[in-house]
Amino acid sequence: MLKIFKLAVRNLARYWRRTVLTAGLIILGIVAVLLFVSVSGSFKGVIVGQITDSMIGHLQVHRKGYVASIDNLPLNLNMKPAQVEKVEQALGDMKDIVASSPRLKFGAMFSNFTETTNIRLNGVMPEREAATVPLLPGRLVQGSAANGLIERGKMLVPEILAKGMKLKVGDTVVLVATNLDGSVNGKTFVVQGVLGDVTGPGGRDGYIHLDDARELLRMTQPEVSEIAIRLKDPKRLDRAKADLEQALAGVRNAQDQPVLEVHTWEGLSPFANIARMIDLLDIFIRVMLVGIVLISVMNVMMMAVYERIREIGTISAIGTPPRRILGLFLTEGLLLGLLGALIGTVLSLGLVYALNLWPVHFNFARQVIQLAPSIAIADILLIGAIVVVVAVTASLQPAWKAARMDPIEALRHV
Amino acid sequence: MSLITASELTKTYRAGDVDVQALRGVDFTIEPGAFVAFVGPSGSGKSTLLNMLGGLDKPSTGTLTVLDTDIAALDRRAAADFRGTNLGFIFQDFNLIPVLTAYENIEYPLLMVQDWPADKRRARVTELLEAVGMSDQAAKRPDQLSGGQKQRVAVARALATRPKLVLADEPTANLDHDTAYRILELMKKMRDEFGTTFIFSTHDPKIMSAAEVTFALEDGRLVNSGGKHA
Question: Does B157 touch chain A (CB under 8 A)?
Answer without folding.
Answer: yes
